[in-house]
Write a structure and sequence with these properties.
The structure is a single chain. This protein is α+β, with helices and mostly antiparallel strands and 131 residues long. The protein has 2 domains: 85 residues, SH3 type barrels; 45 residues. Helices cover 44% and strands 21% of the residues. The protein is built from 3 helices and 5 strands, in the order H-H-E-E-E-E-E-H. A 5-stranded antiparallel sheet has the order 4-3-2-1-5, with no helix packed on it. A hairpin with a 4-residue loop joins strand 3 and strand 4.
């Protein structure tokens, strides 16, 4: 009860109040990202068969430490521990952030150019008036 009342004042989460650090969330994955499900003995593979199937990450299993994944090849939802994630969302967000930063810089430079032109026009008017 005391932690609940202190939380808004200190602006810290209950976890940080108890442990003194932020929780580790590096094991969490982006929902809907591409992933590859490894075929570890569930199918008999021939020499040139793929060792993994493409899939989409749906979430976490309720009963075990597995991931729930939609298998595109079999068109089923399955639970598997052996999953390799390809989280492109992080890369796309980083690229979008870089692009927006460049756009902001370009807008700033354009405004700066416009402001300098306005200042030059005002200075030239002042010079003409002084002559």
């Amino acid at each position: 009860m005391n932690r609940v009342l202190i939380q808004p004042i200190l602006k810290k989460t209950p976890y940080k109040l108890l442990n003194g650090r932020k929780p580790n969330v590096s094991h969490l994955k982006v929902f809907g990202c591409k992933c590859y499900i490894l075929n570890n003995g569930k199918e008999i593979l021939k020499k040139f068969d793929a060792k993994s199937d493409k899939g989409i990450f749906l979430g976490y299993s309720l009963n075990s430490h597995a991931y729930r994944v939609y298998n595109k090849k079999l068109m089923t939802v399955e639970e598997s521990i052996h999953v390799i994630f390809y989280e492109t969302n992080k890369c796309e967000q980083g690229a979008a952030k870089i692009n927006t930063d460049e756009d902001d810089q370009n807008i700033f430079l354009k405004n700066l150019d416009n402001n300098t032109e306005i200042q030059l026009v005002e200075l030239s008017r002042q010079l003409i008036e002084n002559l």
